[in-house]
Write a structure and sequence with these properties.
Blueprint: H1 2-8, H2 11-26, H3 34-59, H4 66-78, H5 82-105, H6 110-115, E1 120-125, E2 128-133, E3 142-145, E4 155-157, E5 161-165, H7 167-170, E6 176-179, E7 183-184, E8 189-190, E9 195-199, H8 207-221, H9 230-251, H10 254-262, H11 267-286, E10 289-291, H12 294-301, E11 305-308, H13 310-314, E12 320-326, H14 332-343, H15 349-360, E13 368-374, E14 378-383, E15 386-391, H16 393-397, E16 414-420, E17 423-431, H17 438-447, E18 452-456, H18 461-471, E19 475-477, H19 482-490, E20 497-501, H20 507-512, E21 515-519, H21 525-530, E22 533-535, H22 541-576, H23 582-600
Parallel strand pairs: 11-18, 11-20, 18-19, 20-21, 21-22
Antiparallel strand pairs: 1-2, 1-3, 3-9, 4-7, 4-9, 5-6, 5-8, 10-22, 12-17, 13-14, 14-15, 15-16, 16-17
Helix pairs in contact: 2-3, 2-5, 3-4, 3-5, 4-5, 4-9, 4-10, 9-10, 9-22, 10-22, 10-23, 11-22, 11-23, 12-22, 14-15, 17-22, 22-23
Length: 636
């Protein structure tokens, strides 16, 4: 039913297939004489309908490949090549359907982004809690957000503190701690304790809904570029008409005009270029990148600016154990093993990083007892009869008899402190690692003709500049909100601009860029829906691979077009001299089409995806940490 509905949106495609089927059946019956009239009449009808649209486009100042298609269909019918005319009609109507599908693909799941926004809110009033539609919340209302719920509206925190996952808004991979009186944006996910906030904006004016509006606005306002084949259509048509007209004038034979136009069919443009683009898109898929349209490949080929989000793009977007610092008699492995033994009873993201760090060092956490966690602060447990306390420096200090010294941290690092039996024994330093392939990706993009590389991030400047310096990125825009990123991309002087990012917070800028590439390996739905291309594997080097594929594809597409045009012009000259009858010319034109298509298929070739490039030596680390009040303390 869905397939029939989709086909119903393209009646000319269905009609062309139906006419071909009916004509094929009739050709096997005594009524075969009807076939030429049926097919020719239909082809001319479609050509006339297309001609009307072509005239409208001409009045708007746009001339494209439809001129050549209409001319080819008419000429083919005139010389009796009605089946060739029908094939051109099928290519013309089918191509329009494919273009329409590609243009709407990026927007088809925008409603999914809207559905993630809360539909109801828990409003506190008159001593009771009632559920109301989120659109009915007004500034000043007290709103209760239960554990693991999405914050429905922007508000001011009334509770003493809150632990929020705001990664969908800012890209920040670690939970953010808010204190009483702090602004709480909508779209964040509450932690393990219910909180109360006072609404400062209605749902319509809140940040999450504004992000959705930005995506929708940017997607619908994106301008359409001229297709590659369109650039050749008018000159080729004029050349063909000039040769045909000159042949007619010199010979005085009108048949000569039709003979020339038969070999001037637009198949090298209608077929060869799309085949090359489909081959390029197939090759990009092998490289781990889904490109949603041929237009995207054209823009990637001409890209002059590439902007990167940091978290989850240039970095892995999740904390990892960097090192263990000890302050007591225990060795680093024992400190880590005991900490992991306690942290295995916590659901906090930092606890997962500690446990994973122990496993990577082949340290097996021991079974603990009497585990107790204070959300956003830390966890305490008895491990082999020893009391192990892990968490924020203030939390650990409150359970020890001596001062807990702060850990020595580099920009972008944070620390989880550890105490055993009331004595501080060390700290676990965590950071969000820069991707090993990030530096190579940046340098490769520059070698492919990208003049300007930017980093657009919501992180604090010191962390952002630390990463940028390691990767050779000069233009750093830190502490950016989604709208700031959109403005930075729109103001970029060297265009086209490619934006690479992930998460809901990057969706507006991905839609605003000339080409948006989403790192979709971890399911960034909003980013993927608003992007023109999606990287399927967790490897940013695929971005450089996509640019390289686009350049190879455009080169092959141009070659296939020029090969087809060159052969067609040669045949036109032969026909103009009277040495190529229409029937023979039609068959030879099929040979030209075959050569052009085979040449275009070269775009699908290329090296099979190899292991991601690795840089020599360790890159400086980073962690997004714009809201920490204690740099040496993990927010729990």
């Amino acid at each position: 039913m869905t397939t029939a509905k989709n086909l119903g949106r393209y009646p000319l495609v269905m009609a062309t297939v139906l006419v071909a089927a009916v004509a094929g059946v009739l050709s096997l019956t005594p009524w075969s004489s009807i076939v030429p009239w049926l097919v020719s009449a239909y082809a001319l009808a479609v050509a006339g309908w297309t001609g009307v649209g072509m005239l409208r486009d001409l009045l708007r100042g746009h001339a494209g490949i439809d001129i050549l298609a209409v001319t080819a269909v008419t000429a083919a019918v005139v010389v009796g090549e009605y089946w060739a005319a029908l094939v051109v009609v099928l290519m013309l109507t089918g191509g329009e359907a494919l273009e329409d599908y590609a243009a709407n693909r990026a927007r088809r799941d925008l409603s999914a982004l809207m559905s993630r926004a809360p539909a109801t809110a828990h409003v506190l009033g008159g001593g009771s809690l009632r559920d109301v539609p989120v659109d009915e919340v007004r500034p000043g209302d007290l709103v209760v957000v239960r554990p693991a719920e999405v914050v429905p509206v922007d508000g001011e925190l009334v509770s003493d503190r809150a632990d929020l996952d705001e990664s969908s808004l800012t890209g920040e991979p670690l939970p953010v701690e808010r204190q009483r009186g702090d602004e709480v944006p909508s779209g964040g996910i509450n932690g393990q304790q219910a909180i109360t906030l006072r609404a400062t904006r209605s749902a319509r004016d809140s940040q999450y809904q504004q992000i959705v509006a930005l995506v929708e606005q940017a997607t619908t306002s994106r301008s359409r570029t001229v297709r590659l084949a369109d650039r050749f259509a008018v000159p080729f048509t004029l050349v063909a008409l000039a040769i045909a007209g000159l042949a007619w004038w010199v010979s005085g034979d009108g048949t000569r005009f039709a003979e020339v136009l038969v070999v001037a069919t637009p198949c090298p443009l209608l077929i060869a270029a799309p085949v090359a683009f489909m081959g390029g898109m197939s090759r990009a898929a092998r490289e781990g990148v889904i490109v949603k349209s041929s237009e995207t490949l054209e823009k990637l080929d001409r890209a002059r600016t590439v902007a990167f989000d940091k978290t989850g793009t240039l970095t892995h977007g999740r904390p990892a154990l960097a090192r263990v610092e000890t302050t007591g008699s225990l060795d680093p492995d024992e400190v880590l093993r005991l900490a992991a033994s306690a942290e295995q009873y916590s659901s906090h993201v930092l606890a997962d990083a500690v446990v994973e760090g122990a496993r990577q060092r082949r340290l097996q956490p021991a079974e603990g007892t009497d585990a107790h966690e204070v959300p956003a602060h830390g966890v305490r447990a008895l491990v082999a009869g020893r009391e192990v306390v892990v968490g924020k420096r203030s939390y650990v200090a409150a359970r020890t008899d001596t001062t807990v010294e702060p850990a020595v941290l580099q920009p972008g690092e944070l620390a989880v402190h550890v105490a055993v039996d009331g004595i501080p024994v060390g700290a676990l330093v965590l950071r969000d690692e820069v991707r090993a392939e990030a530096a190579t990706t940046v340098s490769t993009l520059r070698s492919l003709g990208v003049d300007h590389v930017m980093m657009l991030t919501g992180d604090q400047r010191t962390t952002a500049e630390h990463v940028a310096a390691a990767l050779g990125i000069d233009d750093v825009r830190a502490e950016c909100l989604p709208l700031d990123k959109v403005e930075a991309v729109r103001d970029a002087p060297a265009r086209p601009v490619v934006m690479v990012g992930d998460g809901v917070n990057d969706a507006p800028v991905l839609a605003s860029a000339d080409v948006g590439i989403a790192m979709g390996a971890r399911g960034a739905t909003a980013a993927s829906d608003s992007a023109d291309a999606v990287v399927l594997r967790d490897d940013v080097s695929a971005v450089a691979a996509a640019v390289r594929v686009s350049k190879d594809t455009l080169r092959v597409a141009l070659q296939s077009i020029w090969v087809g045009i060159g052969l067609s012009v040669a045949l036109m000259l032969v026909a103009a001299l009277g040495f190529l009858p229409a029937l023979a010319g039609a068959w030879m034109q099929e040979g030209v089409d075959l050569v052009a298509i085979l040449w275009a298929l070269r775009a699908s070739r290329g090296a099979r995806p190899s292991a991601p490039p690795r840089t020599v030596g360790a890159l400086p680390p980073t962690v997004d940490d714009p809201s920490r009040t204690e740099p040496a303390v993990a927010v729990r």
